Every structure is written in C-alpha cells, then in structure tokens.
Amino acid sequence: MAKEKYHVSLKAIIVRPDGKVLGLNGKIGGALEGYYDIPGGRIEVDEFEMPLAEILQREIKEETGGLEVELEHRPVALGRHQTWDTDKQRIFYIAFVGRLKENIETVQVSSEHEGYAWLNVTHETAETYFTNGTLELVNGYLDSL
C-alpha cells in the first residue's frame, strides 16, 4: 500500500474583541469557492527549523496586509483539506487563535483571496461560511469556547 504524503499548513482563526472571526473569500474556481478561508499557509522547506508562530505571523501579514495579531501558544484545532487541482494535494491543518486588540474593520487581502468579511460564527452558521478542513478548524475553535 502506497503511503500518503501530506503538506502541513498553519492557519489562524483571527478573532476581534467583539468575537467576530475573519473570513477570507475563497478564490473563484478554487476548492473554497463560495466559502470562506482563514489566513495561513504551508510550512516551506526552508522554514522547518523556524518557530511555528513566526511562520504563521508571516502568512497572516502576507494575506491580510500586515494585520498584527497575538497568537495563542497552543493549537486550538486540527483539520484535513484536499486541493482540487491536477495534483489533488492533501494538506494537514494546524490552527491557532489569533486575537486582535481592537475591532478592526478594514483588511487588505492578498491576491490569494477575493475579499473578506467579519463573521458571527456559531455551530449553527459555521457550515454556511466554511467547508472541508476549514470547517473542521472552525468547529474545533467553537468547541473550545
């Protein structure tokens, strides 16, 4: 039996003081089209020795135009995702909570996403906003509250 190879991706569930969660609109034509993503990305080969928080802070800044968050020290949730491109890569997600000190309204999203929203996420609404591995992460976060 062939062994699976997984990429590892760090993700941030960014929460404002009012409890709203940052959702980044999935790319049109991508696996998350019609749903929201959360900031983060894969650990690159040359980042293997770096602290996880440093890697995730870099990803957050790249995808949100420099948003400053305070990351919690322990992961809050785990998830799995599969891309739908020709490779069908499988990705293992590790999510951390990132807290903002203020109720920031504006986020400068990168070209990796189509836009953003501040979401009132509950167990009842999570499936309308998120899917697949990202939904697993958000449900894990909600379970921790």
Can you walk me through this structure?
It is a single chain. This protein has 145 residues and is an alpha+beta fold. It has helices at 52-64, 126-129, 132-144; strands spanning 6-15, 21-25, 36-37, 40-42, 70-71, 77-82, 90-99, 116-119. The mean pLDDT is 94.
Distance between the termini: 40 Å
* Rg measurement, Å: 14 Å
Instruction: Detail the poorly predicted runs.
Output: none
Helix tally equals 3
What top-tier CATH class fits best?
Answer: Alpha Beta
How many strands, what sense, and barrel or not for the largest sheet? 5 strands, mixed
* CATH H-level superfamily title: Nucleoside Triphosphate Pyrophosphohydrolase
Q: Per CATH, which architecture?
A: Alpha-Beta Complex
Could you name the key traits of this structure?
3 helices; 3-stranded antiparallel sheet; 5-stranded mixed sheet; Nucleoside Triphosphate Pyrophosphohydrolase; 145 residues; single chain; alpha+beta
State the gist of this model.
It contains 3 helices and 8 strands.
Tell me the layout of helices and strands:
Elements: E1 6-15, E2 21-25, E3 36-37, E4 40-42, H1 52-64, E5 70-71, E6 77-82, E7 90-99, E8 116-119, H2 126-129, H3 132-144
Parallel strand pairs: 1-7
Antiparallel strand pairs: 1-4, 2-3, 2-8, 5-7, 6-7
